């Protein structure tokens, strides 16, 4: 589904992504962990095309998308959520999803309407359909972020700290939706600091530190890795 080959992103002298190799197979849920500033969101921006790499190559479904624009990647099947949700605050929840289906997903308005309704249902937002997105509480904002991304009909969904700021109960509600999305043959790569949420769904964990992958494997193995434990306990210099 996705392959990164020696991907680098430098901002001047700052090597934010420093030669990352990563392969994600169809059907996987890959969790990405790493300390603040490790380069996780930058990695997503490289995959979604919001940033261009300094070096390396990115393949999506075996096509080289390294230099492709974000909208080309979107239409090809890469959807994403953003760490800070920024819906159109004056549009209703339904309209926000419809914009995703028509502008991002390329559907006509009449084809997009039932899709938007189905996604509101999936994301437990039907009761908020006519609410202005700017008036939503945090959990519903996160649900809307998911619905908007799904409106693009992605084969690969990138989730950027979607559980951040939620209570345990809210996080459980979001996980239910993510598990349903996973069951619909969507491959997921999920950056998250809420480790217990990742552990519920991830089939694999990778850990990024200072722009490099320092662990990649089964979740239990990665969490027991000494280097990873040291990193999370702050024992590295
Ligand atoms: N456009 C940019 N120009 C210069 N530096 C940048 C730019 N974007 C990100 N950085 C730097 O790259 C580093 C990694 O940032 P990034 O947001 O990818 O980290 P992260 O792992 O997602 O962190 P967090 O967990 O806090 O969200 C940070 O030091 C950040 O300041």
Automatic annotation (TrEMBL):
Q: Give the GO cellular component terms, alphabetically.
A: plasma membrane
Q: Does the keyword DNA-binding apply?
A: no
Q: Where are the transmembrane segments?
A: none
All copies of the ABC transporter domain together span: 2-235
InterPro entries for the chain: AAA+_ATPase, ABC_AA/LPS_Transport, ABC_transporter-like_ATP-bd, P-loop_NTPase
Q: Which UniProt keywords apply?
A: ATP-binding, Nucleotide-binding, Plasmid, Transport
Instruction: Kindly list the biological process annotations in GO that this record carries.
Output: D-alanine transmembrane transport; L-alanine transport; L-isoleucine import across plasma membrane; L-valine import across plasma membrane
User: Which Pfam family is an annotated match for this chain, by its short name?
Assistant: ABC_tran
Respond yes or no to whether keyword Transmembrane helix is given for this record: no
Superkingdom of this protein's organism: Bacteria
Q: Which GO terms describe its molecular function?
A: ATP binding; ATP hydrolysis activity; L-isoleucine transmembrane transporter activity; L-phenylalanine transmembrane transporter activity; L-valine transmembrane transporter activity
Q: What is this protein called?
A: ATP-binding cassette domain-containing protein
């Amino acid at each position: 589904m996705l392959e990164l080959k020696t991907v680098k992103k430098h901002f001047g002298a700052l090597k934010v992504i420093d030669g990352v190799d990563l392969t994600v197979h169809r059907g996987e849920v890959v969790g990405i962990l790493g300390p603040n500033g490790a380069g996780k969101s930058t990695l997503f921006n490289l995959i979604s095309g919001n940033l261009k790499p300094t070096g390396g190559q990115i393949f999506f479904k075996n096509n080289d998308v390294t230099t492709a624009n974000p909208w080309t990647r979107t239409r090809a099947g890469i959807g994403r959520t953003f760490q800070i949700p920024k819906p159109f605050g004056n549009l209703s929840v339904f309209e926000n999803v419809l914009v995703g289906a028509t502008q991002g997903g390329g559907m006509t308005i009449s084809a997009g309407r039932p899709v938007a309704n189905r996604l509101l249902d999936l994301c437990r937002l039907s009761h908020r359909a006519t609410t202005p997105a700017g008036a939503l509480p945090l959990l519903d904002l996160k649900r809307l972020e998911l619905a908007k991304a799904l409106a693009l009909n992605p084969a690969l969904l990138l989730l950027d700290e979607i559980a951040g700021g939620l209570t345990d109960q809210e996080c459980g509600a979001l996980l239910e939706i993510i598990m349903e999305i996973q069951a619909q043959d969507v491959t997921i790569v999920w950056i998250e600091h809420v480790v217990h949420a990742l552990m519920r769904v991830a089939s694999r964990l990778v850990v990024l530190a200072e722009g490099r992958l320092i662990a990649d494997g089964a979740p239990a193995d990665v969490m027991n890795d000494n280097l990873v434990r040291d990193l999370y306990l702050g024992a590295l210099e």
